[in-house]
Amino acid sequence: MAKRKAVKTIGVDDETADLLVEIKNEMENRIDDMTITQRSIVKRAVRELHKKIMDQKENDQD
Does the pTM of the predicted model rise above 0.90? Predict the structure, then answer.
C-alpha cells in the first residue's frame, strides 16, 4: 500500500498506480533471471512510460 501511495504522488489514477506497482514488483522478482540486454530494454520502457505519465500530467494541468 505504501508503494501505491508513493506512485500516486505523481498524479496518476488508482488503476494506473496499481499497474505501475505491479510492474515494479514483477521486475524485482525477475531481474536476476534477465540478461543485460533484457534489463536495458526494461529500463528504457520504464523511462518511456514514466515520461508519458509526466507529460500527460503536465498536459492535464494546462
Answer: no
